[in-house]
Amino acid sequence: MPAAACSGARCCSNHKQNPEINKDQEITETDVYEFVIIGNGPSGISLSYMLSGNWPYYTGESEDELLHTRLQQEPDLSLVEQDLAFLSDGLEGRSNNPVSLLLDTLQHPQADLGLDLPSLLDWRQDTSRRVKHVVLGRGKPGGVWQTLDGNLKTVSLGAWMQLPNLSMPKWEAHNTALVNRRTSFSNVAQYYMDYVDIMDLSQNFRNNTVVTHVKQILHCPTNPEKRRYQPCLSEEKSSSPKICTNKEPINILSQSLKDETGGEDEMFCMEDGELSSCCSSLTYHSSSPSRDSPESSACDRESRERRTSGSDFNDSGRASSSAESKQTPPCDIETSNSFSFSIPGYDTDICPSWDPIINPALFSLPRRPSLNPSQLEDIQCSRIPGAELNSPGYCKLSCSAKSLPLSAFSCENPESLYEVRGYEIQTSETGERETKPFKYLTHNVVLATGLDKPNRLEVPGEELNFVIHSLRELEIAIEAGAVTPNSDPIMIIGAGLSAADAIICAQSYDIPVVHVFRRAVDDSQLIFNKLPVNLYPEYHKIHQMMAEGSVESQRVLRGEFVDREHPRYRAFSQTDVSQIIRDRQAVLKGPFTNLTVKVSFVLVLIGATPDLEFLKTDSELGQVPGAPIERENPIDIDVYTHQSLNVPGLFAMGPLTGDNFVRFLQGGALAITSYSYRKKISSLQDG
């Protein structure tokens, strides 16, 4: 039982994780999924396409003769069926993941040379290869692309933004948008939504969801042959089995059901012989057979007749242990969502019921550590005809995804699964937002969330209202007239492409800019030094401005003062912001800088990190132990399967593994699909 009931200001432990969804009953997927994919951006979409039975086949001829030779070893097999380590050996490019390089080399031949050549792959669908999965996303398919300013241009070429088997030109047949070599964010966002529909993937997607909880659990297989009853007998012979008290109970849904403070989250309590619940919306009092079933009706009728006649009860009201009461009951009930067990002092020959009038003995049981009330949820009793008392076959067992098993039961081979919880945001007929909680059980979880939480400076004053952390917030300020060409300059902090986009945006409105960044302009790690000049002239123009920018608006050229080409842009390299002052000033510190600058807004664009607070694990995930997951510390994976090296069953793809371009992240989908195929083949071979 929760420590206190729900109130207007406080929720009980059953509901406290998400108070907005208290009124809604949890929707539970009883089937076990093979994959739950968290994130419905390009990564999640690509993986869903391949897990739906769409596999790539090499049909062209690569300019890489060694790769072509390797691919000809088994020309009739899909890449999914081949040895990805062998195929990708020796490939080089702009990704650290070899499978990403392999797929990109075949989908976009010679792309880094600026060429737009046809793909060397043929995609073929076989529905028998489908893998049961679901994709969970916060918004529409496309992920973060659905939230960006549609007027901006992509960093990558339009062809590099496309997903498997649907080229941008082919998509134009379904859409009137004009796609150039570099396309707008709005076109990309629409393309991803259309892709899901055109490729018939909608049934795999559950949009507008928020994942709140992912954890590993122990789960009993639904196959009853793998479940058994283990009675504990006392040293003296007993006429009834006792519940084991010396064994750690197996928990179906969790290794321990605890609330956030570490205490036991008791859903039921036994007080004065009554079973009660403070919060009934997520707590079930009864697991008796459905009243609509003929077996249930027969059992209820028979048990009432026997209770009325007094044949099964002694004077104390407890179940009799006489020989007459040990006859096989007329109804042998076994449901797919219930347990069968024996309770000391309660004769299992009587058909189960939670009705205190029908079965008063159940509600007069003494409290015991091994049979606490929370373990009585969703369980039923039935005896196997002919089985000896205390024998392993005394009770039938069937698994329940909602029940906590008694310690008297065990699975011969309990399987490790993941439990994924969250809620879906829906709109009612009246236009009000509603939330529906959900739960999935799955063998594997794929993290495809991207880097969606902006990094912060962590300096005094960052909480002030003129400090913003996204380009969209700057655009809103410009549209509202909060910043104009006559305003104090916007301070843009960062040296990545997002900062460059912000500078380009400000220049288009003739707004002055103060650009602050930590690295030296000639640092080889700057993204501008990695981009081809002919493909990204505007970014190299920003890089040139960063090199030439200074505090002065003029410079000396051949002994004469001349105006700078961009006098409304000032750059401060190797500089930090040490403080932001309330009167719209920022204090700059660096080897060559020590001043305070008046600003209108401060735009912080120093990268982002993934929001993985929903992931409940103590294991290290990153390549750098003890450091948070970020762009410089991706999740440590097996590069040929994309499975975490430290957490089995946990996979990652996209920016979480260092693949920040759409053309490369699809390799993660191929690696995971290949893993799934090989695991299936191995299971079949093992019988």
Describe the structure.
The protein has 687 residues and is an alpha/beta fold. The chain has three domains: 19-208 and 610-685, FAD/NAD(P)-binding domain, CATH 3.50.50; 221-413, no CATH class; 456-606, FAD/NAD(P)-binding domain, CATH 3.50.50.60. The chain has helices spanning 42-51, 65-71, 84-87, 98-107, 168-172, 185-198, 294-309, 471-479, 497-508, 537-548, 662-685; strands at residues 27-38, 54-58, 121-125, 133-136, 205-206, 209-219, 227-229, 269-271, 274-276, 409-411, 415-427, 433-447, 453-454, 467-468, 490-493, 513-516, 554-557, 560-563, 569-572, 576-581, 585-590, 593-598, 601-604, 608-609, 650-652. A hairpin with a 2-residue loop joins strand 8 (269-271) and strand 9 (274-276). Helix 1 packs parallel to helix 11 (662-685) and helix 4 crosses helix 11.
How would the blueprint of this fold be written?
Elements: E1 27-38, H1 42-51, E2 54-58, H2 65-71, H3 84-87, H4 98-107, E3 121-125, E4 133-136, H5 168-172, H6 185-198, E5 205-206, E6 209-219, E7 227-229, E8 269-271, E9 274-276, H7 294-309, E10 409-411, E11 415-427, E12 433-447, E13 453-454, E14 467-468, H8 471-479, E15 490-493, H9 497-508, E16 513-516, H10 537-548, E17 554-557, E18 560-563, E19 569-572, E20 576-581, E21 585-590, E22 593-598, E23 601-604, E24 608-609, E25 650-652, H11 662-685
Parallel strand pairs: 1-4, 1-12, 4-5, 12-25, 14-23, 15-16, 15-23, 16-19
Antiparallel strand pairs: 2-3, 6-11, 7-10, 8-9, 11-12, 13-24, 17-18, 20-21, 21-22
Helix pairs in contact: 1-11, 4-11
